[in-house]
TrEMBL record:
The lineage of its organism: Bacteria, Bacillati, Bacillota, Bacilli, Bacillales. This is DinB family protein. Gene3D superfamilies: dinb family like domain (1.20.120.450). InterPro entries: DinB-like, DinB/YfiT-like. Residues 11-152 form the DinB-like domain.
Length: 161
């Protein structure tokens, strides 16, 4: 019988695989293009996915993250590549982000396997969704990744990639 935890980790790996398929064939220059009328690039979206899942998976349960603090200011909600010039820390390259995206689901599984239903510091999203277990955080993370996967696909289409 499959453990209940396996399903969400499997979904995380499957969705991440779809995201990586949209990113793997891009050049760094292509990943930094911003479609007219938008404020972010494909590289920003990739970094944003890493940053948000990192926060959802590790911060609430109090697990240390290996990402530098600058990662959050570079890729969190409200940030954009326009602010990267003002940063002291270098912004991760596309290749570095791809590596983080590939490794992150395994790190999440390793850290949270058997802990998905523990009570953690609750968080209410800007849309009013209350999250109080790692499973709830990861479920929202899957939805969030799907949204940004759609954005990446849209950007590719708008940019002719």
């Amino acid at each position: 019988m499959t453990r209940p935890d396996s399903a969400i980790f499997g979904q995380l790996e499957a969705v991440r695989s779809l995201t990586l398929r949209q990113l793997d064939d891009l050049t760094p220059l292509q990943a930094d293009l911003i479609p007219s009328g938008f404020r972010n690039s494909i590289r920003w979206n990739a970094g944003h996915l890493v940053a948000v899942l990192e926060r959802f998976a590790f911060k609430a349960p109090g697990i240390p993250s290996p990402l530098p603090p600058s990662f959050r200011t570079q890729f969190d909600f409200g940030s954009s590549p326009a602010s990267w010039m003002d940063q002291e820390e270098p912004v991760p390259t596309l290749e570095e982000l791809l590596e983080l995206l590939r490794d992150q689901p395994g790190r999440v599984r390793e850290a949270l396997d058997g802990r998905l239903d523990e009570d953690v510091e609750p968080y209410t999203t800007t849309t009013g969704i209350l999250l109080s277990t790692p499973r709830e955080y990861l479920s929202l993370g899957l939805y969030h990744e799907g949204l940004h996967l759609s954005v990446i696909k849209l950007y590719r289409r708008l940019l002719g990639l």
